[in-house]
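Table S7 (text form). Paired inputs.
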Amino acid sequence: MGKNYLFKVITGVFFGLLVSCDNSSSDQFEPSANNGGNNGNTTPPPARVIEKITLNNNVQEEYTMNGTAFQKGMLRDGNTNNYYTGTVTYINNKIGKIKFLGSIGGSMSYDFSVSEDSKGNVYSATCTATAATALDSYVSDYIFTYDASGKKLTKILEKRKVAGNTAYSLFTENTFTYNGDNIFKVESTKGTLTATGDPNLATAKLTVYSFQNYDSKINPFSTIPKSFFTAWSLARPENFYRISPNNPTSLFVMPPSPAPGVNTPMTYVYDAFNYPVSDKDQILKYTYRTL
């Protein structure tokens, strides 16, 4: 999996994570696939939270808790020396704001305001992205659609105002396909808006993110609030697999033509409770903290 992380570095994927479909900011976890991810064991796994991911002993990601409350996560920004730290702010015991700041001066910052339901699902969000130059800055509003059960995210429509303009001019529509409870595919369509504010499909370009061949084990970030990685995936859509309950063993990214698609396998070594603890080469390692 050392190669896997390097692939994600190239494509902007930050290796990890994430949560059960019923995970919320109260950090409850509920593994949901294939015997609960615990192979039917009657002894429940210990309550724990991911603390860091290292590659060749170098920290790639790190997560901070205050007791059982999540505070912030640090993720390496691709193949650069820039690290994004996302810090959460709670409003009425739910995450209301998430701000991602880079460690290198001049990097884009992302300031999200989010609204969560009782399951920890995000149902609305706004992002103010601030760049070194005003022309590259933008404000985005997001509309979330869930299935009839209220558990599975089916679509996110983003409308964006750029360079300080007051009118929306760009859109991104992410459409989700599932295999069981896991996100199998995200079709991300980007283009301009018409004068009436509707997506102009004639301008649209499609990128497809496929997360394939999930295992039946516990996602290592099942105690991290779902809204944290939902927000990060709005900025980096290749990370949407992190809100699945299990772990994909293959990632395929198909950018707009004529760029070629790229596939990479992922491997895992698990502990007795079916949490990933490393890749098969023992190069990429996961460290947990017991709650």
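Next pair, protein 2 of 2.
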Amino acid sequence: MSLPGPLPALRSQPKAIFFTDFDGTITLQDSNDFMTDNLGFGVEMRRKGNKDTLDGRRTFRETFQEMMDSVKTPFDVCVEKLLENVQLDPAFKEFQLWCKANNIPIVVLSGGMQPIIRALLSHLVGEAEVLDMQIVSNDVRPRPGKSINDEDGWDIKFHDDSEHGHDKSLEIRPYAALAERPIMFYAGDGVSDLSAAKETDLLFAKAGRDLVVYCEKEKIPFTVFHDFSDIQKVVADVVDGKISVQEAATGRN
């Protein structure tokens, strides 16, 4: 297998790559939703924005910008509150260690912000383990004349110019285009994952969340998961050749 420089997940010549969303997927709570619901304009307006995105009336970039604009709390205080309230999927740490032992790189593709993701992962998983993970996400920047730790002092810095703010497919497609490549998985839960939903060999969509609805509406093959123990079993069976990705894509069943 060739090892092109821009594709870091190929460095160890893995059999598989696990791409994953962060908020609401690796974690039980979505950090951006938590900030919006508790420090911003609230649950009702956030849900309306999510529905508008799912229904194609507005872009994720537009609705997410509005969510983050509604949060005026200094950034360091936001991070502190998230560290107190956001919990890890109970099976993720075991999955992460299993992936490490089996040479399956984990690539975090997030519509959230890098400093929040790194702070939460370091807190929940451990700083040493986070060093092994590639994280591709949006970032944060100060508003003109302010520090990010001032009241209304920070703004989201989008990863790219797409309607998604961070088009996750752009990170996945170079791997998918290789003549010989690893099996590719993706796990997600919501509207920030729409750009990645069709890009890998097998999609895991979290039970009861918006991504399941989107996949059924768009007839995208997927399998549902409740926590990362479900994911670990299926990934292991696919990598070991016990089932195919087509057989694993059972939808809600």
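The domain at 8-248 is CATH 3.40.50.1000 (Rossmann fold).
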